[in-house]
Amino acid sequence: MGVVIETEIWEPNKGLYNFMFICCFLSILCLPNKTIPNVFDHASSSSLLRFQRTFLLFYSLSSVIDGLWAVFGEYEWAYYGVSKEQMVMSLCVGYGVSLLIGSFLGMLSDLIGHKKLCLLFYLLHLFVGIWKRITAEPAFWLASICLSLASSIFSFSFETWMVVENDKLSLRHDALNNMFWLMTFFESVSFIGSQVLGNWLIDSNVNKNIASICNAAIVITVAAITYVTRGWKEASQVASFKDYQILFYRNVISEKKIWLLSWVQACVHFSAVAFWILWAPTIVADGRDVSLGLIYPCFLGARMLGSTGFPWLFNGPLSIRMEECLVYLLIMMGLVFSIVAYDYQEIGVLVMLFILFHACVGMVLPSLARLRSMYVPNEVRGGMMSLSLVPANAILLFLVLQGGYYKSIWNSTIMAFSTLGLFSAAYCMHILKKWGKQLHQNRRNL
């Protein structure tokens, strides 16, 4: 009689989800009165609060659209017969387009208006959805180009729109700071929602329901386009290209602080993208059987929890200097990558390290957004944000091409690059902190 050996599929403890949910709820519920966002106060009907509520709903839907394509990303490609080499080349094409075109879309957004760029974001997603729906064998390199451009727009246009409109309606910086961490919080919730929606649409029948992902993306995108065209009024841009060049050079190119902040932003972006490329291969290394679909929400839940810590650290009773906190957060993120890159870990330890990484990301993202509001004028904010991603996209293109296509770089080497980048970002933030202290002391001595 043969012996049947059953393999156990590793899954995270179900109590972990409840723990994160309760922690997020308590973190928001117990905020001091002066830091509680009144976005959800329906008794208030000011124009600022109406805008904030509408924007968060609008931003959440946009995040769902952006996340739907990632739910069955590689599986969908394999379903249509795309080889691994073709997948890698599609990624390289996408990063190349982000580098050559996406890096300059922020400047275009500053010049012609953020509404037009957000419309382009939806039109790109709409084109991909329709193209996949009507084509039996869609060209995935074309989809990669469109989605890469859409992701580039998503990285700066919505935040810039929110900041500009907030400044028009209010001079309160606490309202703007609350929106930063709420954006990170709702984006993470929406990514989890996109996974739930995608799984519900597929319903264990991939062959029959694979096209339902495209249908959902098309419907949500059309609804968003309708809102933008009818419900969003934006003042026309009056600055000429020459005036914008002068303003951009004066406030971005010639400012050392902006160079440091841009490098930090590029390093965080690179490490986050590298994580989403490598986390699954790292966990399933050596043939380990893991339920990846149940691990994915843990990372996003950790990012939600990290975002709720932002008001506690910078506005609440634990108020500390932002640059100093970012130094420690970036060092912690670098240590996580260094451990994973150079030391073999069990699945449970790996998941906890990745959860810690995303908790730090949830706090870093709104912190960087607040620093941008302190150092970068709104007129050039989009250009600064998109141009700062040039180093990240260039290194990603090189590493994906070398590691995924030519097989000349190990995954641990890519993580080592992330580690070095995060440590250098921490050093840049340390310098920025020293310059801020010197400026403060000089003002006191005057």
CATH architecture: Up-down Bundle
Domains (count): 1
Amino-to-carboxy terminus distance: 90 Å
Helical stretch tally: 19
- Summarize model confidence as the mean pLDDT: 83
Number of DSSP strand runs: 0
The CATH H-level homologous superfamily? MFS general substrate transporter like domains
Highest CATH level, the class: Mainly Alpha
Oligomer: single chain
Helical content band: over 70%
Order of helices and strands: HHHHHHHHHHHHHHHHHHH
Percent in strands: under 5%
> What coarse outline follows from CA principal-axis ratios?
globular
Task: Describe this entry's structure for a reader.
The protein is mostly helical and 446 residues long. It has a single domain (14-30, 47-445), classed as Up-down Bundle (Growth Hormone, Chain: A), CATH 1.20.1250. 78% of the residues lie in helices and 0% in strands. It has helices at 14-29, 47-71, 73-79, 84-100, 105-112, 114-134, 140-154, 157-169, 173-202, 206-209, 212-231, 241-253, 256-283, 292-314, 322-342, 347-375, 381-387, 390-405, 411-445. Helix 8 (157-169) packs antiparallel against helix 9 (173-202) and helix 15 runs antiparallel to helix 16. The radius of gyration is 22 Å and the shape is globular. The N and C termini lie far apart (90 Å). Residues 1-6 and 442-446 have low confidence and may be disordered.
